[in-house]
Specification:
Blueprint: E1 9-12, E2 26-29, E3 49-52, H1 66-80, E4 85-92, H2 94-107, E5 114-122, H3 135-143, H4 156-170, E6 187-190, E7 195-198, E8 202-206, E9 213-216, E10 236-241, E11 268-274, H5 287-305, E12 307-309
Helix pairs in contact: 1-2
Length: about 300
């Protein structure tokens, strides 16, 4: 990723054989360091793939409006690139949270020609904002977190971006929604070898070395206020690291949905376990690992492409 590169940058192109009926483009949001280099390591996903980097990478200025201000700006970047219609949003860690923030803004603005077909979230655990009296405790815990990419003294710009992002994130609350995914209706997923019917609370799980299987999870209490046109959270697939790491990203490591279960309106409908810890999801020195991660990302996209509201 180069700071003077187009933003978003197109990483991959839909193959000619799919151009007549292309799948939704995948738009990946940068990680906490503000860069998109990791996404260049992915193999062919057979669709248009774009990546958004932080245009204030290494900048001393702050985002007006915090994360929601970033999300609003990123929507404008997507539109300026000529991207319209149905899209899949996603990203690693902070990129997952940004995807949710962007989806919420779009849910409130029907004038924008962007519809979220799904979210592809890579190891972004449930997020809670930090109160003022907890900031010191949070900083102490974060100092003990291994951040090999962001604390590299040879890349002070990335470190500065990461620290700025963290300060915004700890004060940010996850957006609220009027209803869970598809308003809690039954969903149908058709895969090459098998199809699944998912009731409210059901999630497809693909363990390491295993096959897809449905599991039942606890659900978040439904909203008590009915609205005429409820804003519903888009369906998501989560790629979940199975190896532990130290620090704030492992509070919910042992939970299948990384803490989202019962704490947030239901939206994660599939979980894919990956053999990595949070900071080693992407590894430019391990081609076999990147090949496997590419297959898992393709699995997640296949789920989103083939997920429909069930009709009798």
């Amino acid at each position: 990723m180069f700071l003077d590169a187009p933003n978003p940058t197109q990483l991959q192109f839909v193959p000619p054989r799919k151009r007549a009926n292309p799948p939704p483009p995948l738009i990946l949001i940068h990680d906490g360091g503000g860069t998109t280099f990791s996404y260049f390591l992915l193999g062919n996903l057979h669709r248009d793939v774009w990546a958004i980097h932080n245009p204030k990478h290494g900048d001393d200025s702050v985002w007006e409006g915090g994360i929601d201000g970033m999300a609003k700006h990123y929507i404008s970047l997507i539109l300026q690139a000529g991207i319209t219609g149905s899209i899949v949003l996603g990203g690693w860690s902070f990129g997952g949270y940004m995807s949710i923030a962007i989806a919420r803004l779009l849910a409130d603005d029907s004038s924008v020609n962007l519809q979220i077909a799904g979210l592809l979230i890579i190891d972004a655990p449930y997020h809670r904002s930090v109160s003022d009296d907890m900031l010191d405790e949070y900083e102490n815990e974060r100092e003990g977190t291994p951040e090999p990419f962001f604390k590299d003294s040879s890349n002070p710009l990335m470190q500065k971006s990461f620290e700025s992002t963290c300060l915004m994130l700890v004060c940010w609350d996850l957006p609220s929604w009027d209803a869970p995914v598809c308003q809690g209706r039954t969903m149908h997923v058709v895969l090459p070898q098998r199809s699944f019917i998912l009731q409210q609370g059901d999630v497809l799980h693909k363990p390491l070395g295993g096959a897809w299987k449905p599991v039942t999870t606890a659900t978040h209490p439904p909203p008590t206020v009915n609205v005429e046109n409820p804003a519903t959270v888009p369906p998501a697939v989560m790629l979940r690291c199975t190896q532990p790491t130290r620090g704030v990203y492992d509070e919910f490591r042992d939970e299948k949905l990384l803490g989202w279960e019962s704490r947030y309106p239901e939206f994660i409908k599939a979980v894919i376990d990956i053999d990595a810890e949070h900071y080693t999801v992407f590894d430019k020195f391990d081609s076999a690992k990147m090949k496997n991660l590419t297959l898992q990302v393709k699995d997640g996209l296949r789920i989103l492409d083939n997920m429909r509201v069930f009709s009798e």
